[in-house]
């Protein structure tokens, strides 16, 4: 038999090649053109797997090392569309390590996809702490990396054009102070310098990583990269680069583990696929996978489904003890919300010792009034047709209160050094509590029960899916290592069972682990608006779920950096086009649309249009821009599928007439709705040409177009 330097698998869509000596991945090629997307092998970054032990990286050994240490040579088995590679042991750059690894990769028939599996066994004297699998290195598409696009599920999603260049560019940051809070606001890419020496993103699920997939695409085709994990366990998704001097993107999932001698572990199955088209092909794949084990569901009460947004009051009692409102002010504040067109309020700083201070003292604060005054005020709002949600922090407790210290120690996230994980908010220190600990979940459920008894029909759980998950090593809590997300799922499910059906559960952050269990998830795109914010990624993947986003006035904004204020209209338009639930602060001096009459009128118009939309048509099924064949650059829009119709939410930044084209000649009539012509609207002429339907948009900044099928 002749010598083979590599083994190839080819299903007519995808070609994959494995080095016969090292078992490492050499080719991941698009069969139609033969293009190998692994264009830079990046010798310091092995593929398809790596491990970490006490800060040292373990990986398959290179050929020259295998010749010196034959025990490192893998056994490679090839079937028609499948390869199995068994490593008896791995290499840390200096010596042989007794960790056995076997990976399996299989090409799917009639598809451009490969499925990956990995099994590990930890030998004597070894302790594995992290696993990277699968790893694809040095990826770019076509002749240049500069025109490739990455969509990555950061909170809800970002879109980064040319990440090889932008990730490695010098960071652009501004500092901003509001009250006791000090912020750093980024204007460049989100990339950070990673331990590998590369620049990129390595976000944790769930935390900042809202889904376990990304897509990287060019003009002709793209790469879908996903974990098929049904357990909701913690992982991170790495997208990094060494920059244009060593071009290419490196993609990997990594899993925190705690494996000792004799332990065995299997990685969740992963899939890598090449596809035609853009990121929406990846979204469709991930949606199909996720719906295979989790239904397309949402926990929205009917009143929330018809509401366009809420007004948030964080100024009852601030962290520094400053009081702006008291319980007796709540009816007046509700009337002010109604003047904007909203009937939903969120109260923060309502509890003892106030916002970002009194956690977990979730009981009425006597400085603000009596418990009966609070109950009466909430009842007044409810009887007036309104809805009230209360703020609860679902992550931290204040260490300044002596009575918290024993509880925090017993229920906190236990670190490997024996300490408890701590974080700061403003000028206060807090202990992060382990959501896998039953007493902590019980304390949070008791707080929700209290606000329900006070008359609230909603609760907002801060930090739940926004902050990085805790890796708790306390066996007394009864959870597996890395099982953080299961604790919050259990909390949400138990709260839902204990409150009335019309109760709305909201939380900070965004995750497909929690989306079907709540009414809305806060994505806070202001924090990364200048860094590629793209909530369309999550909305398109899970169109049945509601995302919440903050919008801001252009003038008089002290709470956020000037750069956020200057993007005010752009963020309002995006929330409208993407079908997001509006979060509007009303902080008297620091963040209120009352201080900017022009922005307030613009917001009122959008809210009126959104409220009409929800009541007349329902939310529809968000479809990004599917079916839109042509659109001028000054126009942006979102497409919503209805029964026998389509709804277009439109923004026209130029203020001049603009024409768009919709695929198909099946449309019979259209009607345009503007804030000033509700509810009647105005008929729009349709022109059908060569299988397309053309129509003109109005000059007004925002509009809603209803187009009916035959």
Describe this structure in words.
The chain is α+β, with helices and mostly antiparallel strands and 710 residues long. 19% of the residues lie in helices and 35% in strands. The chain contains 13 helices and 47 strands. Strands 7, 8, 11, 12, 14, 15, 20, 21, 24 and 25 form a ten-stranded antiparallel beta sheet that branches. Strands 26-27-28-32-33-34-35-36 form an eight-stranded parallel β-barrel, surrounded by four helices. It is globular.
Beta-strand residue fraction: 35-45%
Number of strands: 47
- What would you call the structural class? alpha+beta
- Cα(first) to Cα(last) distance is 66 Å
Helix content: 10-25%
Sketch the major β-sheet. 10 strands, antiparallel
Question: If you compute it from the alpha carbons, what radius of gyration comes out, rounded to the nearest whole angstrom?
Answer: 27 Å
The gross shape turns out to be: globular
Average residue pLDDT: 95
Total helical elements: 13
- Low-pLDDT residue intervals, each spanning 5 or more residues: none
